[in-house]
C-alpha cells in the first residue's frame, strides 16, 4: 500500500528520465543505442536494454516498480525466516507473523527518496531492480545449499537475474563474493557444488570483464573528472579510499542514520541478552555511542564539534591535521564494535560468523569503492542501497537466531514499546518519502 501511494504521487518530470533517456529513441534500434552507449558512456547494457524502452512508458514503470518494491521484502523474508537453515544447525523457533512485520518495517525504513537523485525511473532500474535480482540469486544459493538442487525454471530465472543485476558494477562484485562463499561452503562439505553456481559465476565474471574493458566507462570517467572534480586526477589510492570511507561515515554515522542506529542498538541488546556480560555489552554498544556522540554530545558545546566532525563533500584534505582522521577513526571503531557484537552472537558457529563478516565487508567495500569515482558526491546516497540492505539482513538474521531467547526473556511490554518506536521511525520515513515524491 505504501509503495502504491508513493508511485501515485511520483511525477516523472526531472532527472535523466526526461533530460536524457526519453530522447534516445530517435529512430535508432535498441541495439544501435546500446552499442553507442557501450562505446561512449556506460557498460550497463543489460540494465539499459530494459531502461531505455521503459522510460518511454512511465505508467508501466510505476506498475513494475511497485511489484519490485513489494517483492524485495518477500524474498528477504523467505531468505531469512521461511526456509529453516538446517545446514547451519540453527534453532528454527520463529514466529512467522513477527518475522513478516519485521521485514516489512525494515523495508519501510529504507529512504526510498534516494531513488530520485538521477530521476525516478533511471535510478530505480539501475539500483533497486538489481537488488531484487541479487536477493533472488541468494535465495537460489540457499536452496542449493539445503536441497542440492533447484527446478530448471528457477535456475533459468537465476540466469536472467544474473545477466541483469551483474550489469551493475557494485552488484557484480557483491554477487562474485556470494558465489565464492557458496563454492567454499560446498567444498568444505566435500561436495562439487551445483552447475548452476558455476554457471552464475561464469556470467558474473564475463559481466565484470565487460565492465572493466568498456571504453565508455573510461570516457565517462574522464568527462566527469573534468566537469565535476578536476583534482580527482591527482588523487592517490589512499586518498580515494579515504574519500570513500569518510563518505560512508558521513551518511551512516555523522548524519545519525536511522537504519544504522537501529541495527547497532539491536545487536548490542542481543549481545546483552545472550552473554549477560556488562563489558561485552558495552563493547558491542560502541557503534551506538559513536552515533549518539554526533546526535547529542556534539550539540552540547562548540568544542565537541572538533571531535565529532561531520565530513564535508570536498576534494581537499589536510592530512597533517589530526581532525581529518577522526571520521575514519569513528568508522573503524564502529565497524569493529559491530564485528565484535556479531562474534559474541555467533562464536559457537564460527563458519557462520566468517560468512556474515564477508558479506558485511563486501557491503562496506561497495560504499568505499565510490571513492574511486569522480561522481561520488553527484551520485548522492543511491549507491549505498546495497550496504543498507546488507545491514538490515545481518540484523534480521541475528534476531532470527535469538528469537527463542527473546520470547522467553524479554517482557511483552518492552517488545511492544520497541515495536511502537520502530513504527514511528517507519512513519517518519514514509512521510518524508511521500513529500519527496510530491515535490520531485
Automatic annotation (TrEMBL):
Superkingdom of origin: Bacteria
Record field: transmembrane: 59-80, 101-121, 171-187, 193-212, 254-271, 278-297, 325-346, 353-377, 383-400, 412-431
UniProt entry tagged with the keyword Methyltransferase: no
Keywords linked to the UniProt accession: Membrane, Transmembrane, Transmembrane helix
Protein name: Uncharacterized protein
Organism expressing this protein natively: Roseburia intestinalis L1-82
Record flagged with keyword Chloroplast: no
Amino acid at each position: 500500500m505504501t509503495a502504491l501511494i508513493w508511485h501515485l504521487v511520483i511525477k516523472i518530470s526531472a532527472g535523466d528520465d526526461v533530460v536524457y533517456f526519453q530522447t534516445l529513441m530517435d529512430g535508432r534500434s535498441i541495439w544501435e543505442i546500446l552499442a553507442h552507449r557501450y562505446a561512449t558512456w556506460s557498460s550497463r547494457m543489460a540494465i539499459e536494454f530494459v531502461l531505455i524502452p521503459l522510460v518511454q512508458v512511465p505508467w508501466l514503470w510505476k506498475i513494475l516498480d511497485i511489484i519490485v518494491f513489494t517483492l524485495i521484502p518477500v524474498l528477504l523474508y523467505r531468505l531469512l525466516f521461511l526456509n529453516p537453515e538446517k545446514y547451519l544447525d540453527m534453532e528454527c523457533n520463529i514466529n512467522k507473523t513477527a518475522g513478516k512485520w519485521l521485514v516489512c518495517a525494515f523495508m519501510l525504513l529504507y529512504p526510498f527518496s534516494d531513488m530520485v537523485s538521477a530521476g525516478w525511473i533511471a535510478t530505480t532500474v539501475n539500483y533497486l531492480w538489481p537488488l531484487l535480482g541479487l536477493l533472488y540469486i541468494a535465495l537460489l544459493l540457499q536452496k542449493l545449499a539445503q536441497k542440492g538442487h533447484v527446478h530448471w525454471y528457477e535456475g533459468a530465472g537465476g540466469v536472467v537475474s544474473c545477466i541483469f543485476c551483474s550489469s551493475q558494477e557494485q552488484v557484480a562484485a557483491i554477487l562474485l563474493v556470494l558465489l565464492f562463499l557458496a563454492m567454499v561452503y560446498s567444498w568444505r562439505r566435500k561436495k562439487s557444488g551445483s552447475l548452476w553456481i558455476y554457471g552464475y559465476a561464469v556470467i558474473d565474471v564475463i559481466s565484470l570483464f565487460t565492465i572493466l574493458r568498456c571504453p565508455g566507462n573510461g570516457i565517462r570517467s574522464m568527462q566527469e573528472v573534468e566537469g565535476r572534480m578536476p583534482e580527482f586526477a591527482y588523487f592517490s589510492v589512499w586518498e580515494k579510499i579515504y574519500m570513500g570511507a569518510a563518505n560512508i561515515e558521513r551518511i551512516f554515522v555523522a548524519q545519525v542514520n536511522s537504519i544504522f542506529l537501529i541495527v547497532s542498538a539491536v545487536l548490542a541488546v542481543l549481545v546483552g541478552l545472550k552473554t549477560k556480560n556488562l563489558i561485552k555489552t558495552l563493547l558491542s554498544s560502541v557503534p551506538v555511542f559513536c552515533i549518539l556522540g554526533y546526535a547529542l554530545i556534539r550539540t552540547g558545546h562548540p568544542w565537541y564539534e572538533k571531535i565529532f566532525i561531520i565530513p564535508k563533500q570536498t576534494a581537499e584534505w589536510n592530512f597533517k591535521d589530526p581532525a581529518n582522521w577522526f571520521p575514519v577513526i569513528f568508522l573503524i571503531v564502529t565497524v569493529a564494535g559491530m564485528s565484535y557484537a556479531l562474534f559474541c552472537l555467533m562464536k559457537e558457529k564460527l563458519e557462520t560468523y566468517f560468512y556474515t563478516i564477508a558479506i558485511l565487508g563486501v557491503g562496506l567495500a561497495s560504499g568505499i569503492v565510490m571513492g574511486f569515482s569522480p561522481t561520488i558526491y553527484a551520485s548522492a546516497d543511491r549507491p549505498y542501497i546495497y550496504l543498507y540492505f546488507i545491514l538490515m539482513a545481518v540484523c534480521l538474521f541475528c534476531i532470527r537466531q535469538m528469537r527463542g531467547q527473546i520470547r522467553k526473556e524479554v517482557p511483552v511490554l518492552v517488545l511492544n514499546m520497541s515495536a511502537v518506536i520502530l513504527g514511528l521511525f517507519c512513519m517518519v520515513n514514509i512521510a518524508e518519502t511521500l513529500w519527496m515524491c510530491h515535490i520531485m
